[in-house]
Write a structure and sequence with these properties.
Chain B: Keywords: ATP-binding, Nucleotide-binding. Chain B: InterPro entries: AAA+_ATPase, ABC_carbohydrate_import_ATPase, ABC_transporter-like_ATP-bd, P-loop_NTPase. Chain B: Residues 1-232, 249-511 form the ABC transporter domain. Chain B: This is ABC transporter ATP-binding protein. Chain B: GO terms for molecular function: ATP binding. The structure holds three protein chains of three kinds. Chain A is an all-alpha fold. In chain A, 74% of the residues lie in helices and 0% in strands. Chain A contains 15 helices and no strands. Chain A has helices at residues 3-32, 40-61, 67-95, 100-126, 135-142, 146-149, 158-163, 167-185, 187-197, 199-204, 209-235, 245-259, 264-283, 289-295, 298-313. Chain A is globular and about 60 Å long. Chain B has three domains: 2-229, P-loop containing nucleotide triphosphate hydrolases (Rossmann fold); 245-344 and 430-517, Rossmann fold, CATH 3.40.50; 356-427, no CATH class. Chain B is built from 16 helices and 20 strands. Chain B has helices at residues 37-44, 67-72, 90-95, 106-120, 135-148, 165-180, 192-198, 221-229, 288-296, 337-343, 365-369, 385-397, 414-427, 444-460, 471-477, 500-507; strands at 2-8, 11-17, 26-30, 52-57, 60-62, 75-78, 153-157, 184-189, 201-206, 209-215, 247-257, 263-273, 276-281, 306-309, 330-331, 345-349, 432-436, 463-467, 480-485, 488-494. In chain B, the strands form four sheets. In chain B, strands 6-7-8-3-9-10 form a six-stranded mixed β-sheet, sandwiched between helices. In chain B, helix 12 crosses helix 13 and helix 13 runs parallel beside helix 14 (444-460). Chain C is built from 13 helices and two strands; from the N terminus they run E-H-H-H-H-H-H-H-H-H-H-H-H-H-E. The chains are: A mainly alpha, B alpha/beta, C mainly alpha. Chains in contact: A-B, A-C, B-C. The interface between A and C is large, with 54 and 55 residues.
């Protein structure tokens, strides 16, 4: 593999990885509270479309859009829409005690429907697929640090490799570190983990189980939604494609949660590894398209291997939260 | 506590109880199973709320509605079932849910934990994960957790039930250190020797009623036993003597380990005969469950254990319907539950939650009747006719109150569920019938129905093993009584001649004579 | 020492219901659907300012307006039903088989492959049998793998089956590339367009009558299997409580593996029906998310296969109807997913009111002073 190819694979991996990194981090936060939200794809859809729609209408009505407003508007819209999806999930599963798997799948159907419906409408409004223009907003998301990104050591484009991404790629790493710190080093994080492991014990210790579950699920969904936002704004440069890519990315994010054994720091390199595995075929010479498809199987196969490994090794730290997927309510006396 | 009363449904768990806990003393709360000790203490720790009566702490009348309220008052309870998160460390569990100021500093927490440990003589590694801990370490974490929250009234619910003698001694040293420090300690127990060893005062409960309190120095185990078990009550249970009584089940050196590796049963040996009811007495958790499960094939026994089954001779009334086995006895250990069942060994175990393992809650009586027999008959289809007929029969004969035999048994009342369970086992025409807690929670009439059923079985020549809680019942129903204590057979006595005091003492490990079989 | 905070008992308490008359439960569900239609109507009105009644009318026409439309709706409902029937035993056992999507696809792949390669070797009836058997085997295998790991090591089946879907999807993409026709189209095209070899034959003049017959047979069969066979009884016991199953001498691992093989097999057969009886092609959309939707169908029907018929038709109606109004009113097809979502949320939420009741009571005075 030549240097240019390596650089290009590296970059592709990071950009691709960042999308699922957001999705996985949000889901880790959610799952740590014991909620298994299979609606991640739907949530990411919601985040993506809300961010896009917000900036689209803003730019449509303002000939000279202010970059800061563009950023704020789309960012908040994406987070809020996704968190609302999380709220819906929380209400159904925590308050109404519905089954988490079923509710999550319904969220995926619903989120995909909403996003593609409005995405399609936006396309129509803009005059056709690929015609949506949120140039100003997309530019903000894609802006690189000027000097740094063109640094090079000899032929090696170090600057481009490390600094050649929009700010959300770095934000994702920051969020992962904050999430790690929150879960392992703070009181609230400790309480949250105990809720996901053993809600009865947490309850007895005076922790408000319901509040923790609601907050973790909604904020987690918000973070997942940012993955959708990054995808629309940066990855596909501020447009909308009705091709179901976000959905498959959402499932990949769920896989990443397992792969990283529920640890935020693992998701960082895990996501880039998934990105690299996904794009690897592109850089291996003489591959037919068939072989490429087989290559794309890799992230899932690796995840299955990890899943089997953690279940056979039985190392306690690596297990899913013990109460994952079950609803908790104090038994009536 | 003054005049504290708590009822569950129609059952009075605590009836106008007055109790004082003084600073700097260890109080034992003594009573048999179901005498209301734990319920009383749960009201102090905020799990239950009393129906009436008042609680005063340091002269102030208080309302305790939640464990948090109790903590705020300095009351902490260590439950029998630990409330710990397995994947967290000791320190993490200890600070769980605390709303302290400042950021979480686990090193500081560990230091304080060590300090508390040093002060009272515990030893524990604050950074060890709970799942790596032994039972006694987990208990220590629970105690430290309570102390960390500043409790000065500690309630321990049967703290020694899960400990080895050495661990118990260590715990008692710690408790004495705490007493020296001015803490008040309540130990819920039914072990007399521990009461004598550790406590300053003893309060005795019997069937929800406060019997009295005495200073430990002014009493002895015999007096305490009398207070605890009360006078024998005549129940007038019919107890015919059946002849002949052939040997049916021979248990030799049966040893069973709990998942934690503790010996739940230690070299248990006894014989059960057809035509008699063998009672099993013992404080709950002495190995009764493991004993029955091991015989029924649900527990793995340690090598060297034997359970030999001697089948009835062909001319006996109960000889039919079962898979024939070697006439001079066959080893049951190593067979699976289904094989053992088909040989003719039945078990009706009424777990605490009743539905836990004997019945399928969402199914009706009819479908539950075939839980163990659904495989009978050829072909892949279920034959629902026999279970339906059986369900109707059980319903009628035992007076099961249910809208129909297809109503999910979950909706039946406790007594009816038990009738279904026992009725099903009897209907298998077993040659060995084991029941545990068959009358738990039942009213008098239903209890008698069950007693009569068991006696009928005995008359047929069945070997009945009856694990019971109420000594009065055991003494009037059973021909012989085996007394289990902490996994040991503490003796087998004749049900017709033994006294309540005698059995009570054996249950609490005071008399250790291996009475002849 | 601070005085304890006095807490009142909450004004509303949630109590589990012992039982509810069936008619009442269905009333609640019906109410949920009505509420969902109202909400969807509001949504439609808000977005399009069209009269929701006219839109619903349009939907109805789209789904059942013509004979052709009706049959397409029936065909789709049958597909959904078939997968739901396949999932029923697994779910009744409380085994979360999220992998139907993959099981359908592997069944479809084998069917398509055999159709392409043996289309000229065997006559259609024989070919159909071979394809059916092959798809059953493939689906069963796909279901078996997670079951074996669950039985042996307790591997989380929800996540395992989920991942198996994507392995199957990529496998499908691979096969599409392999059998591409015409070259460069990245599709397989309609297989055996001229010869119709391996296609479901017309019965009573209807293309998809065989689909109906097959799926209805399965539906009835599964109902009987779960209710009247020893294996069905075992599934019910295992689903209720693993402890009770142990007590009854049931080998859990064997039931897990056997049931998942059956579940996967039927989903695989659904792939066969989808390819040989409907699409006559294979693509990653052959399953089209039905593996997921069917989970909801099976769950909402409480594993009663006859109730599934109802739910499957409701969802198929929504989808077809929404596609119709999309073209009629210039909306896009994805509106159907929104409406489906709303209806699902309402039905899922309504289960709460069937299982629990709310008890309102006056606040008690603090009794323990």
């Amino acid at each position: 593999m030549s240097m240019t190819q390596f650089v290009s694979l590296f970059q592709a991996a990071i950009v691709f990885g960042t999308v699922i990194l957001y999705g996985a981090m949000g889901e880790i936060l959610t799952e740590k509270s014991g909620n298994l939200n299979l609606g991640v794809p739907g949530i990411m859809y919601l985040g993506g479309i809300a961010g896009l729609a917000a900036s689209f209408f803003y730019e449509l009505n303002n000939p000279a859009p202010n970059p800061a407003v563009c950023l704020l508007l789309s960012f908040l819209a994406a987070f809020a829409a996704a968190a609302l999806g999380g709220l819906l999930f929380s209400f159904l599963t925590i308050t109404l005690r519905a089954n988490q798997n079923v509710t999550g799948l319904a969220i995926t159907i619903f989120g995909g429907g909403v996003a593609n419906f409005f995405g399609g409408s936006l396309n129509t409004l803009a005059g056709g697929v690929g015609q949506i223009s949120v140039a100003a907003t997309s530019a903000v998301y894609r802006a690189k640090i000027p000097g740094l990104s063109s640094l090079a050591i000899g032929d090696f484009p170090l600057g481009n490799l490390l600094f050649g991404y929009g700010f959300m790629a770095y934000l994702a790493i920051a969020v992962a570190i904050v999430l790690w710190y929150f879960l392992t080093r703070t009181r609230a994080g400790l309480n949250l983990r105990s809720v996901g492991e053993n809600p009865a014990t947490a309850d007895a210790a005076g922790i408000n189980v319901t509040r923790y579950q609601y907050l973790a699920t909604c904020i987690g969904a918000g973070i997942s939604g940012l993955g959708g936002l990054y995808y629309t704004m940066d990855y596909i440069k501020g447009t909308w494609g009705n091709d179901g890519t976000i959905e498959s990315l959402g499932w990949l994010a769920l896989a990443l949660v397992i792969f990283s054994v529920w640890r935020p720091l693992n998701t960082i390199w895990g996501s880039y590894l998934f990105g690299a595995l996904t794009w690897l075929y592109f850089y291996i010479p003489n591959l037919t398209r068939k072989d490429m498809e087989l290559f794309k199987m890799l992230p899932y196969l690796v995840t299955i291997a990890v899943l089997i490994l953690i279940s056979t090794r039985k190392k306690r730290e690596n297990q899913p939260p013990a109460h994952l997927g079950l609803s908790y309510f104090r038994e009536e006396r | 506590m003054r005049g504290v009363t708590k009822t569950f449904g129609s059952v009075i768990a605590n009836d106008r109880i007055d109790l004082d806990i003084r600073q700097g003393e260890i109080l034992s709360l003594l009573g048999e199973n179901g005498s209301g000790k734990t319920t009383l203490m749960n009201m102090l720790s905020g799990i239950y709320f009393p129906d009436s009566g008042e609680i005063t702490v340091r002269g102030q009348p208080v309302t305790i509605r939640s464990p948090k309220d109790a903590f705020d008052l300095g009351i902490g309870m260590i439950h029998q079932h630990f409330k710990l998160v397995d994947v967290l460390t000791a320190s993490e569990n200890i600070v769980l849910g605390l709303k302290e100021k400042g950021r979480l500093n686990l090193r500081e927490v560990s230091a304080r934990v060590r300090e508390i440990c040093g002060k009272y003589g515990f030893s524990i590694d604050p950074d060890k994960k709970i799942y790596d801990m032994s039972v006694s370490e987990k208990q220590t974490v629970e105690i430290v957790k309570v102390l960390y929250r500043g409790a000065d009234i500690l309630i321990l619910d049967e703290p020694t039930a899960v400990l080895t003698p050495q661990e118990t001694d260590r715990l008692f040293d710690v408790l004495r250190n705490m007493r020296k420090d001015g803490k008040s300690i309540v130990i819920i127990t039914h072990k007399l020797h521990e009461v004598m060893a550790i406590s300053d005062r003893v309060a005795v409960l019997r069937k929800g009623v406060f019997v009295g309190e005495v200073s430990t120095s002014e009493t002895d185990p015999q007096k305490l036993t009398d207070m605890m078990v009360g006078h024998a009550v005549t129940l007038n249970i019919n107890r015919p003597l059946v002849e002949p009584r052939p040997l049916r089940l021979e248990v030799k050196d049966l040893t069973v380990l709990t998942p934690e590796g503790v010996r739940a049963l230690d070299q248990v040996s006894f014989q059960a005969f057809g035509g008699e009811i063998l009672g099993v007495a013992g404080i709950s958790g002495s190995g009764q469950k493991e004993l029955l499960e091991a015989i029924a094939g649900l527990q793995t026994a340690q090598p060297g254990s034997h359970v030999i089954y001697h089948p009835p001779t062909p001319d006996e009334a109960i000889a039919g319907a079962h898979v024939p086995v070697a006439p001079d006895g066959e080893e049951l250990l190593g067979k699976n539950p289904r094989q053992i069942h088909r040989i003719g060994v039945s078990m009706a175990f009424v777990p605490e939650d009743r539905l836990g393992m004997g019945l399928v809650g969402s199914m009706g009586m009819a479908d539950n009747m075939m839980l163990k027999t659904y495989r009978s008959g050829r072909g892949p289809l279920l034959n629902r006719k026999p279970p339906r007929a059986l369900a109707e029969k059980v319903k009628q004969e035992l007076d099961v109150l249910t809208p129909s035999i297809n109503t999910p048994v979950r909706r039946l009342s406790g007594g009816n569920v038990q009738k279904v369970l026992v009725g099903r086992e009897i209907a298998q025409e077993p040659s060995v019938l084991m029941t545990a807690y068959a009358v738990r929670g039942l009213d008098i009439n239903t209890s008698y129905t069950i007693y009569n059923l068991l006696t009928e079985e005995k008359k047929k020549g069945v070997a009945v093993i009856f694990v019971g809680e109420d000594l009065d019942v055991l003494l009037e129903l059973c021909d012989r009584i085996l007394v289990l204590c902490a996994g040991h057979v503490n003796g087998i006595v004749d049900g017709r001649t033994a006294t309540k005091e005698e059995v009570g003492l054996m249950m609490t490990n005071l008399r250790k004579e291996a009475a002849g079989v | 020492m601070s005085a304890p905070v006095t807490q009142h008992e909450p004004a509303v308490r949630i109590v589990k219901r012992d039982s509810i008359p069936t008619w009442k439960a269905w009333c609640i569900r019906l109410l949920a659907v009505v509420l969902a239609l109202l909400l969807s109507g509001l949504f439609i009105f808000a977005v399009t300012h069209l009269n929701p009644v006219a839109v619903y009318q349009g939907m109805f026409e789209g789904a059942f307006g013509s004979e052709r439309n009706t049959w397409v709706t029936i065909r789709d409902a049958m597909m959904l039903l078939c997968v739901g029937v396949g999932l029923a035993p697994a779910f009744k056992m409380r085994f979360w088989n999220i992998g139907a999507e993959g099981q359908i696809l592997v069944g479809g792949i084998l069917t398509a492959g055999l159709m392409i390669h043996l289309g000229y070797t065997f006559s259609t009836p024989i070919l159909l049998c071979i394809m059916a058997l092959a798809s059953i085997a493939a689906g069963a295998l796909w279901g078996l793998i997670p079951a074996i790991f669950k039985a042996r090591w307790g591997t989380n089946e929800t996540l395992f089956t989920l991942m198996m879907n994507y392995v199957a999807i990529q496998l499908t993409s691979y096969c599409v590339a392999l059998w591409e026709n015409p070259a460069g189209s990245n599709t397989v095209g309609i297989i055996n367009m001229q010869t119709r070899a391996g296609w479901f034959p017309k019965i009573l003049g209807q293309d998809c009558m065989l689909n109906v017959i097959l799926v209805m047979t399965l539906t009835v069969g599964m109902f009987l299997y779960l209710k009247y066979t020893k294996q069905g009884y075992e599934i019910a016991v295992v689903g209720e409580s693993a402890n009770t199953a142990r007590y009854a001498g049931i080998k859990l691992s064997r039931v897990y593996i056997r049931t998942m093989a059956i579940s996967g097999a039927i989903c695989g057969l659904a792939g066969f029906i989808s390819v040989a009886g409907a699409g006559h092609t294979i693509s990653v959309d052959t399953a089209g998310g039905r593996g997921f939707t069917a989970i909801i169908v099976a769950w909402l029907a409480k594993f009663n296969t006859f109730v599934m018929i109802l739910i499957a038709f409701l969802l198929a109606f929504l989808e077809k109807g929404a596609i119709e109004i999309a073209s009629q009113f210039n909306l896009n097809n994805d509106a159907s997913n929104i409406i489906t979502g709303i209806i699902l949320f309402c039905i899922i939420g309504s289960e709460f009111f069937i299982n629990y009741k709310l008890v309102f009571h006056r606040r008690k005075e603090a009794a323990g002073k």
